[in-house]
Amino acid sequence: MNNSLYPLQFEPILKERIWGGTKLRDVLNKPITSDITGESWEISTVQNDVSIVSNGIFKGKSLNELIDKFPLDILGEKVISKFGKQFPLLFKFLDAREDLSIQVHPNDKLANKRHNSFGKTEMWYVMQADDSAKLIVGFKEKSSREEYLKHLNENTLVTILDTKEVKKGDVFFLATGTVHAIGAGTLIAEIQQTSDITYRLYDFDRVDANGNKRELHIDLALDAINYDVVASEKEYSKEVNVSNEIVNCDYFTTHFVPLNGNYSVKKNKDSFYVYMCVEGEFELEFENQKDYYKKGDSILIPASINDYSFSGKASLLEIYIS
């Protein structure tokens, strides 16, 4: 075991997007410099976007460097047995000032064949939603390739998709193949497989600052889409100071921890844990050291750390590989 590891934080990787805004700065205190910042990648090992440690003795080191040096201590035995010595998840905050494109993600088999990549199973936790903010998740009724293409060609795709008005605390689990879009006015915490493969189906005929439309991936998407109706919205309990399961899938398990007082964790060393603070502030105590965190912070607990505790008033997403 490596005794020098500790709860890790990382520099946010900020992404300008045509649909982005300023909530990442105004609500989550991220150091954005553009009024169209759509994403803060909190923990990532996507090629060319690898997270850099921002705290402690490993400050300035990349997450990949630490995994290379301490693979078992960072990732855990179960993670390595399932995914090898690579970090299998990507954690983000997203600010949609405008609607995102309607899109779909391929499964592992298709993504590996076409892109030598993981697929992209993901989940959304709605941190804030403006009045009447909406998400698109799947089809209203069972569809087909032919019906989908007909509506796509006639610019009526939205009419056959399931649109849901959302509020703070809503959660959606998006299996690969689910056609989806984040709507304007939402601030989202997103947990997904380590993948940046997106097939864009429709982009509302938008153009960028140079008058160019973004690329669509109509043909690639045809074999990736699940044309069945899917039940994406997740109900979950919110018992205070305990870990309430929201999602349990092959790629990640996510729990909701409403903290109002104290919450202690004694875990095995099979997996790293990640905590995303979606509301409030708290202290994390580990080996008699206390560190302060607030809304918008994300923390990676290496697998070798199995005893720590929280105190404060906050809402946390707790994510690990089971």
From TrEMBL:
<feature type="binding site">
    <location>
        <position position="105"/>
    </location>
    <ligand>
        <name>Zn(2+)</name>
    </ligand>
</feature>
<keyword id="KW-0479">Metal-binding</keyword>
<feature type="binding site">
    <location>
        <position position="122"/>
    </location>
    <ligand>
        <name>Zn(2+)</name>
    </ligand>
</feature>
<dbReference type="Pfam" id="PF20511">
    <property type="entry name" value="PMI_typeI_cat"/>
</dbReference>
<dbReference type="InterPro" id="IPR014710">
    <property type="entry name" value="RmlC-like_jellyroll"/>
</dbReference>
<dbReference type="InterPro" id="IPR011051">
    <property type="entry name" value="RmlC_Cupin_sf"/>
</dbReference>
<dbReference type="InterPro" id="IPR014628">
    <property type="entry name" value="Man6P_isomerase_Firm_short"/>
</dbReference>
<feature type="domain" description="Phosphomannose isomerase type I catalytic">
    <location>
        <begin position="10"/>
        <end position="116"/>
    </location>
</feature>
<feature type="domain" description="Mannose-6-phosphate isomerase cupin">
    <location>
        <begin position="246"/>
        <end position="320"/>
    </location>
</feature>
<dbReference type="InterPro" id="IPR049071">
    <property type="entry name" value="MPI_cupin_dom"/>
</dbReference>
<dbReference type="GO" id="GO:0005975">
    <property type="term" value="P:carbohydrate metabolic process"/>
</dbReference>
<keyword id="KW-0413">Isomerase</keyword>
<dbReference type="InterPro" id="IPR046457">
    <property type="entry name" value="PMI_typeI_cat"/>
</dbReference>
<dbReference type="GO" id="GO:0004476">
    <property type="term" value="F:mannose-6-phosphate isomerase activity"/>
</dbReference>
<keyword id="KW-0862">Zinc</keyword>
<feature type="binding site">
    <location>
        <position position="180"/>
    </location>
    <ligand>
        <name>Zn(2+)</name>
    </ligand>
</feature>
<dbReference type="InterPro" id="IPR051804">
    <property type="entry name" value="Carb_Metab_Reg_Kinase/Isom"/>
</dbReference>
<dbReference type="Pfam" id="PF21621">
    <property type="entry name" value="MPI_cupin_dom"/>
</dbReference>
<feature type="active site">
    <location>
        <position position="200"/>
    </location>
</feature>
<dbReference type="GO" id="GO:0008270">
    <property type="term" value="F:zinc ion binding"/>
</dbReference>
<protein>
    <recommendedName>
        <fullName>Phosphohexomutase</fullName>
    </recommendedName>
</protein>
